[in-house]
Amino acid sequence: MKPLYAEVIVDIAHANVDRSFSYRIPAALQERLQIGDEVRVPFGSGNRTRSGYVVAISDHTAFAPEAVKEIAGIAENRESIEHRQMELAFWMHEHYGCTIFRALNCVLPVKNKVRPKQKRRLLLRADEAKAKALLAKYREKHMPAKARVLQYLMEVQEADLDVLMKELKVSMPSVTALVEEGAAELSESEVNRITLPERAAKQPVISLSEEQQAAVKAILQRRQQKDLRPSLIYGITGSGKTELYMELIARVLEEGKQAIVLIPEIALTYQTVSRFVARFGTQVSMLNSRMSAGERYDQFERAKRGAIRVMIGPRSALFTPFPDLGLVVIDEEHEATYKNENQPRYHARETAQKLCEMCGAMLVLGSATPSLETFYAAEQSKVVLYRLTKRVNDAHLPEVLVADMRKELERGNRTMFSDALHTALAETLARKEQAMLFINRRGYSGFVSCRSCGTALKCPHCDVSLSLHQDNTLRCHYCGYSVRMVQRCPVCGSGYIGAFKAGTQQIVKSLGQLFPEAKVVRMDYDTTKNKGEYETILKTFADHDADIMVGTQMIVKGHDFPKVTLMGILAADASLFVPDFRAAERSFELLTQAAGRAGRAERPGKVVIQTYQPEHYAVRYAAKQDYEGFYREEMQYRRLLGYPPASHLMVIMTAAKNQEEAKQTAERIKTQAAALCGGETMILGPSPASIEKLKDYYRQMIYIRKQEKRALETLRDRIDHWLKESELLSNCMVQYDIDPVQLQ
Ligand code: ADP
Ligand code: ZN
Ligand code: ZN
């Protein structure tokens, strides 16, 4: 019998996974051992037994056979969390064509070697009366340590735990006792702190409407029948989707299971999370991308131990190692951020579906503007659709006005605001209500160009326009390049050079001229770069310390400000011109979501959409808030041109510092792909990416369409295999993306 060898990844829980080790497979295991199995292996010079996972099996090894150690045994437990995570990683590896190591690093939490010490804070929890009573009790019962801490907390409200214990000379048991008696509360990290204030204000559970209840019942029933098809909750903003999720979570928790809630990072705010905390208390935790690897690791450990039972976070929260996952919710499932733009290029929706199948868990998607993929799947009964048709509390849909900016110009209005918007702003301010102005910056930036020769100033490293900032620098938003603003056109020498398109800064400035008494806050990439800035702006606005909030897409997602009765949308059509087959879908989404921000409580809302293309169907359907009308028209276009979800599309991108190299590699890939596919398949390109040069790399694209996704995956693997053999890759990178959510 041939000796067989296995590649084993050792100790996945404790290190950054980046390599495997060769082991001989003992005869007894040769028939049984499979990729993904957990094994025990001797490791290191001391041959200590460690656990590992088999990632490959072959009949040869690159090492001298006598130097290869033997696998000591196989672990019988295939139910472990680690085993499940492995299986998911393997699925990602196959499905998204990344290496197994990449997939594992994505799925497994990475334990930092040097973990920053957790700062713990002690907070006063009891109200004044209770605190006083407890203090009296401690004094009476001669508990001086507890009394000291409580008295101190009553003065300062909260304190660093280490400092406090040292200063007051108390030990941990006293602190723990205070916590147990409800006098104080420990917070382990920054992240938990932001959710704390709501904990006291536990709200009564809302009773669900008939529609909500019917959906909950049907979803639970389907699970009982082992029907694990995903559910789509389709309902406008304010129709009660979040309440419905919470009801499902409550049911799952009652059964002793756990839940994951995915929310687009941008909507992952104090407001959203605190609603969950108010209902489920300390069982809830959150992840965000600003956390360090160590913080994430701790969160995952707590989830594993059962200290956390509901995890809220962006797409990576999907990998929370819950022992008995019962539910995954993906809110705003249409969001492009659910797709990872780095290797592995996984989509959280697909990955969640796989995970839920593995765990027997429910997958619930929610949106007011579902992705075409999901709505199409619902039409084909691969996803089960539940509609929430009413806004809770009979809140009315806003009145939508479309302002044709071409007509404004004809009438001689050269400002950024149409008459309709100007009037509406004045009225809103007069009523002491709030307004939001959303500038659609997707697809363009406040670029600088020459009025004489038309030259636009571009980044020397990336093929994108530079934008002008208030400090008089020109900056590239892709690579961060910055340079002082020029006085003369570098091409023709003309002095007529400047920024002509309005950005958030210009809007704020002209608001200042038009409504000098109004307080304005600005929310965009620049004002939210630092930790906490985003929350501060939101809070200022929520507290009505500002009348108008001006911002980019960031302000559109998931906020609920009851006093906002006007939403102005500037440059509504900018995003229609992005060279991407999803341009109309994205524009429709943005406009609809933006419109949904106005008038969420009892006050009626108004929306003004400013556009140069009032006749475009994305604008028309958004103005009518008619998703299904838009869906039908957009699907016709996708069918006609063979775009997803009507068909499947693989994008292959080559990138090289040398323009020719990128082109030639792309040409050769195309030839090879054509040979592999036969005549039937439509292959387009290569053509330069819409931003051809990015961070000094030139990029070429090839587009391949097929009816079957599986066929594209096979093609990708064959091309990749051929590329590796052909050594074309030395100076050129190649990336594959099947059914991209955003074209490069
Ligand atoms: P969505 O997630 O669809 O935007 P939410 O769940 O946030 O909707 O609900 C919008 C508002 O209506 C929230 O303030 C919520 O508390 C309230 N709400 C939701 N369902 C009900 C209900 N059945 N009864 C009363 N209020 C509700
Ligand atoms: Zn010029
Ligand atoms: Zn750049």
Give a short synopsis of this structure.
The protein is built from 23 helices and 31 strands. It is an alpha/beta fold and 744 residues long. The protein has five domains: 103 residues, GIY-YIG endonuclease; 75 residues, no CATH class; 184 residues, 3-Layer(aba) Sandwich (Rossmann fold); 188 residues, Rossmann fold, CATH 3.40.50.300; 91 residues, Ribosomal protein S10 (Alpha-Beta Plaits, 2-Layer Sandwich), CATH 3.30.70.600.
Structure description:
There is one protein chain. This protein starts with a strand and ends in a 6-residue tail after the last strand. It has 744 residues and is of the alpha/beta class. It folds into 5 domains: 4-106, 3-Layer(aba) Sandwich (GIY-YIG endonuclease); 117-191, no CATH class; 210-393, Rossmann fold (3-Layer(aba) Sandwich), CATH 3.40.50; 395-444 and 500-637, P-loop containing nucleotide triphosphate hydrolases (Rossmann fold, 3-Layer(aba) Sandwich); 648-738, Ribosomal protein S10 (Alpha-Beta Plaits). The strands form 7 sheets. The protein has a 7-stranded parallel beta sheet with strand order 12-13-11-14-15-10-16, sandwiched between helices. A 6-stranded mixed beta sheet has the order 5-2-1-4-3-6, with no helix packed on it. Strand 21 (473-475) and strand 22 form a beta hairpin. Helix content is 35%, strand content 22%. 41% of the residues are buried. It has 23 helices and 31 strands. The longest helix has 19 residues, at 659-677. The structure holds adenosine-5'-diphosphate and zinc ion (ZN) (2 copies). Adenosine-5'-diphosphate binds at residues 206, 208-209, 212, 235, 237-243, 392.
